[in-house]
Amino acid sequence: MAKAKSKTATKKNKLGVKNSLVNNINARKKKGISKPKSEKTVSKESYEDMKENWDKK
Q: How far apart are CA 14 and CA 56, in angstroms?
């Protein structure tokens, strides 16, 4: 009999972290495969806006 998947299980990407932009950035940084500045898709302003909202949940 197959196990039923839990609805509360979070999806993880190929880096092994929960799918979110911040988690992906930090996981790539930790693994040493982060992209060079010329290839980044998140602007510095957007990242700062995200950081401001992290503690508001």
A: 28
